[in-house]
Amino acid sequence: MARTDIHQPERVQQRDPLVRHWFTNVHEHGRGPCDLDEFLAAPRWIRTRCYRQPSAQAPNLCGCQLCTFQSYRKLAHRQERVA
């Protein structure tokens, strides 16, 4: 099995109805109408007024480079191994 099979990006988990309770909806309607549906429908991360963030009850959110889309972590680990 490929090592990416065990990973599930946070963006995918935000849309998954089975782990919906791991996330809290944040609404900032002071500047306009709710756009949470637009945030969830976008294929990439976009900045909207309303969004979903992990709650304290989220036990299995993976923080690796594959799941958080933070490529600098991979580079930092590679630099540590070389050093």
Provide an overview of this structure.
It is built from four helices and two strands. With 83 residues, it is an alpha+beta fold. It has a two-stranded antiparallel ribbon with strand order 1-2. The two termini are 31 Å apart. The mean pLDDT is 78.
Share of helix among residues?
25-40%
- One letter per element, helices H and strands E, the order comes to HEHEHH
Mean pLDDT equals 78
Q: N- to C-terminal separation?
A: 31 Å
User: What best-fitting shape do the alpha-carbon axes yield?
Assistant: elongated
Which oligomeric form is depicted? single chain
Q: Output the radius of gyration.
A: 16 Å
What percentage of the residues does DSSP assign to strands (E)?
A: 5-15%
Strand order of the largest sheet: 1-2
Continuous helix count: 4
Give unreliable regions as ranges.
none
